[in-house]
Amino acid sequence: MKENLVIIPTYNEIENIEAIIRKVMSLSEAFDVLILDDGSPDGTGKKVKELQNEFTQNLHLIERSGKLGLGTAYIYGFKWALEKGYQFIYEMDADFSHNPEDLVRLYKAAKIDGYDVAIGSRYIKGVNVVNWPMGRVLMSYFAGVYVRMITGMKIMDPTGGFICYRREVLKTIPLDKITFIGYAFQIEMKFNAFLYKFNITEVPIIFTDRTKGVSKMSTKIFREAIFGVIMMKIWSWFKSFKR
């Protein structure tokens, strides 16, 4: 039985990719890694192929043509993970904004404590964000307030992208019907898990903004999330969420 798979979408992450893979592979718990590269012109995919010669059993690469969106990358990865039989599937960024060592804490929250979804949370214990300008911190924090108000979820960091899902969650959520492909995707996945009444917990983390490469975040992405929340709430009134 395969246990842990960390899914890392990439686009132009040549400055980070080798270090992040080596760090994950060095952890006290065993994690396989799946890189989903959207045709990075900087050679990210090529570097992963080189590392596969070293990590022959644990490092996987799927190359896609062009930037197809964060959500579509994760959906593809989720389906791949389920097909391969992984029990715990993780989302993580390539740029060290998520500390790979916290993967072990997410794993223990799911495996030992029995939660279905474990979220690496920036806001469960105050505001734990490093190197963000105050405007971005406030935008992110109050986006969470807005999401909780509209959806009824109690999750303090609904937009966060550092997560562990039990395979049962991803088998239950109709992945082909996930609507959003940007960062609203993160809210939509959590909202589905909430509606299906899975047990969700938040594990406090410190989020450190990238020091290498270029951020993919923009105000457009946040706008998508804000307006998407209303749409998600409306369609939830017309669907059944039984498992």
Automatic annotation (TrEMBL):
<keyword id="KW-0808">Transferase</keyword>
<protein>
    <submittedName>
        <fullName>Dolichyl-phosphate beta-D-mannosyltransferase</fullName>
    </submittedName>
</protein>
<dbReference type="GO" id="GO:0009247">
    <property type="term" value="P:glycolipid biosynthetic process"/>
</dbReference>
<feature type="domain" description="Glycosyltransferase 2-like">
    <location>
        <begin position="6"/>
        <end position="172"/>
    </location>
</feature>
<dbReference type="InterPro" id="IPR039528">
    <property type="entry name" value="DPM1-like"/>
</dbReference>
<dbReference type="GO" id="GO:0004582">
    <property type="term" value="F:dolichyl-phosphate beta-D-mannosyltransferase activity"/>
</dbReference>
<keyword id="KW-0328">Glycosyltransferase</keyword>
<dbReference type="InterPro" id="IPR029044">
    <property type="entry name" value="Nucleotide-diphossugar_trans"/>
</dbReference>
<comment type="similarity">
    <text>Belongs to the glycosyltransferase 2 family.</text>
</comment>
<dbReference type="GO" id="GO:0016020">
    <property type="term" value="C:membrane"/>
</dbReference>
<dbReference type="Pfam" id="PF00535">
    <property type="entry name" value="Glycos_transf_2"/>
</dbReference>
<dbReference type="InterPro" id="IPR001173">
    <property type="entry name" value="Glyco_trans_2-like"/>
</dbReference>
